[in-house]
Amino acid sequence: MNARTQGPAPVRWLRRNAVVLAGLAALVYLLLPNVVVMLFSFNKPAGRFNYEWREFSTGAWTDPCGVADMCGSLGLSLQIAVLSTLVATAFGTFAAFALARYRFRGKGTGNALIFLPMAMPEVVMGASLGTLFLNTRVDFGFVTILIAHIMFCLSFVVVAVKARVMSMDPRLEEAARDLYAGPFQTFLRVTLPLAAPGIAAGAMLSFALSFDDFIITQFNAGPSTVTFPMFVWGAAQRGVPVQVNVIGTAMFLIAVAVVLVGQFTASRRRSRS
Amino acid sequence: MTAPSVPAPAGTAPPPDRPSPETGSSGGGPETRPRKRLTPYWLLLPAGLWLAVFFVAPFFYQASTSVQSGSLEEGFRVTWAFSNYADALATYGPHFLRSFLYASIATLLCLLIGYPLAYTIAFRAGRWRSLLLVMVIAPFFTSFLIRTLAWKTILSDGGPVVGVLESLHVLDVTALLGLTGDDRLLATPLAVVCGLTYNFLPFMILPLYSSLERIDLSLHEAARDLYAEPATVFRKVTFPLSMPGVVAGTLLTFIPASGDYINAQLLGSPNTQMVGNAIQKQFLNVLDYPAAAAMSFILMAIILVVVTLYMRRTGTEELV
């Protein structure tokens, strides 16, 4: 007879499900701000700040770009995120194959070089890269932001792709070679499709990281290159328009829809085969 | 006793009767050919070069900047002004202390809040598992600055959270501990810690989940068969096996939290500023680059020491 089977039924139920209840409470903590952002996208605030509820309005949803410079900053963030994802995914995938598939002198150094950016606070990386650009008299702007974003996205792509490549069965590629596939054909028709989920995960991660980065960007941006997070930061000092919440809500809903559709089709494909 | 005439297994050597288009390449092994030996270096070159130039080299520039003196008008010159470091510590000592204090508390809270959720997803969620995982990642889809601003609404004076905590006299207790004051939550250390905990919670949950998910459930059964109480199963089996996740999660939370300045800026007051705020102000507003570089170096050094000691103590050298 242990503690689990003692006491009246509700107490027993509570004891058995205490972990689940605590977990759900954590989930509420995690999602509460998203709910608030969503609710307040329908607010009509009294002043310049959208922190207190006043009345229901769909004004911001019908005019999402009604705030000066906001949609421009959104476009800039998208541009930078796409470009840095492309470069970081390509370079990171190459590096991941080198580190996962080969033994060579300097591999430890390579691994450390990939690991260190993830173990460094953003403010340190941002300030030191900014110091480099200041000392070499490079003008801050689009290019410096892009360089910075590729730099911090690389490591995450390498980690995602490397994990996938290391879990791949090398016998599949041997089989392809046994069936007279050349090295190029083997890579294109066997290795790449097998590694694709890892590459896709790395690309999505770096897109999200780049799109949402603020700290490193702030240290390496020019006066005319205001990304979306920098716009929000500026707005937090001057006054937050409701449209910021509209963008936040729209991004949230689109991304959740994409993920759910992806999961649904994946589970259907699995159940069919 | 094995017969010596057994043919070699397929794959180690091609069958002799099959005409091979590239004779010798599969027999000798790829490592022996010089062109192939260089392949990993070529593959590593773009990423390695990028990180060498834009991640490693900046630290040398920063090291040199941190011992410069001068002014913005006359320019900065290297004068081996190590006083920059002493000045930084003298002026911003409290900022450093607050950074590591807040980051430590937030990391601990993340572990306490995140563990039950990771455990639930790994062992109790059943077919809801993937949906719950999506819900853990979902907050990321809204820019974190917007979500941090939402905490201003949630914790606002006269808001429901303040009202409930006030009526339960929780705010009196936290005020006694010096965490809050004047019956408010905003602009207090508690709000900053709450924001930090919130922002880095998914970074704790995901590694915890991935190491819990790998645990063989038959180990739990074995422990129960040996009459272990549920608490004992957790203490002796589950928790030790989840240690890699605990270490990775605490590092992924503590490191960014100690350098963060967004939560302190948006949810705190001048009295809750962290070292990130100081670096940001010196670099972007005061334009005193040597001071910013010196502080950034001290922060980096402390974190490297803490992380190394922690990883050695927990015995996890290889995380990547």
Please give a structural write-up.
The complex is a heterodimer of chains A (273) and B (320). Chain A is mostly helical and 273 residues long. Chain A folds into 2 domains: 3-61, no CATH class; 65-240, MetI-like (MetI-like fold), CATH 1.10.3720. Chain A has 11 helices and no strands. Chain A has helices at residues 9-40, 59-62, 70-101, 107-115, 122-135, 142-166, 170-178, 183-212, 215-220, 228-238, 242-272. The radius of gyration of chain A is 24 Å and the shape is globular. Chain B is built from 14 helices and 2 strands; from the N terminus they run ααββαααααααααααα. With 320 residues, chain B is an all-alpha fold. In chain B, strand 1 (68-71) and strand 2 form a beta hairpin. The model of chain B is unreliable at 1-32 (pLDDT under 50). Chain B is 69% helix and 2% strand. The longest helix of chain B has 42 residues, at 83-124. Chain B is globular, with a radius of gyration of 27 Å. Chain B has a single domain (83-314), classed as MetI-like (MetI-like fold), CATH 1.10.3720.10. Chain B has a two-stranded antiparallel sheet with strand order 1-2. Chain B has helices at residues 25-28, 34-66, 83-124, 129-137, 144-154, 160-167, 170-176, 189-213, 217-225, 230-241, 243-259, 262-267, 275-286, 289-314; strands at residues 68-71, 75-78. Chains A and B meet through helix 1, helix 3, helix 4, helix 5 and helix 6 of A and helix 2, helix 3, helix 4, helix 5 and helix 8 of B.
Outline the fold blueprint:
The complex is a heterodimer of chains A (273) and B (320).
Chain A: H1 9-40, H2 59-62, H3 70-101, H4 107-115, H5 122-135, H6 142-166, H7 170-178, H8 183-212, H9 215-220, H10 228-238, H11 242-272
Helix pairs in contact in A: 1-11, 3-6, 3-8, 3-10, 6-8, 7-8
Chain B: H1 25-28, H2 34-66, E1 68-71, E2 75-78, H3 83-124, H4 129-137, H5 144-154, H6 160-167, H7 170-176, H8 189-213, H9 217-225, H10 230-241, H11 243-259, H12 262-267, H13 275-286, H14 289-314
Antiparallel strand pairs in B: 1-2
Protein name (chain A): ABC transporter permease
Transmembrane segments (chain A): 20-42, 80-100, 112-134, 140-161, 187-209, 246-266
Membrane topology (chain A): Multi-pass membrane protein
